[in-house]
Amino acid sequence: MKNWLETVEPLVYESRIKVPYTWSVGEVGSRFLIELRDHKKIYGTRCPRCDRVYLPPKKPAVNVS
């Protein structure tokens, strides 16, 4: 018996989806995008606890011990 996927032709519908929403990327995300746009630099944040670097950046945890 043949695999049924081999007998089916894919259906492709090309279109655009309009998403009428806007939202803020926040304080940290804004700095990331500004650094990228204005200075051509990729800005990340380093976790003071585990020393990992996050891209895109995350706001550091408040309770770091």
Give the end-to-end Cα distance, rounded to a whole number of Å.
62 Å
User: Helical element count?
Assistant: 2
State which percent range the strand residues make up.
5-15%
Which structural category do the helix and sheet elements fall into? mainly alpha
> Total strand count, please?
2
Large-scale geometry: elongated
Order of helices and strands: HHEE
Low-confidence stretches at least 5 residues in length (pLDDT < 50)?
none
Q: What is the arithmetic mean of pLDDT?
A: 85
How would you characterize the largest beta sheet?
Answer: 2 strands, antiparallel
Helical content band: 25-40%
Rg estimate, integer Å: 22 Å
How are the strands of the biggest sheet laid out side by side?
1-2
List keywords for this structure.
65 residues; 28% helix; 2 helices; two-stranded antiparallel ribbon; 2 strands; mainly alpha
Structure description:
The chain is mostly helical and 65 residues long. The chain has a two-stranded antiparallel sheet with strand order 1-2. The longest helix has 14 residues. It is elongated.
Topology readout:
Blueprint: H1 4-7, H2 26-39, E1 45-46, E2 53-54
Short overview:
The chain is mainly α and 65 residues long. It has helices at residues 4-7, 26-39; strands at residues 45-46, 53-54. It has 2 helices and 2 strands; from the N terminus they run H-H-E-E.
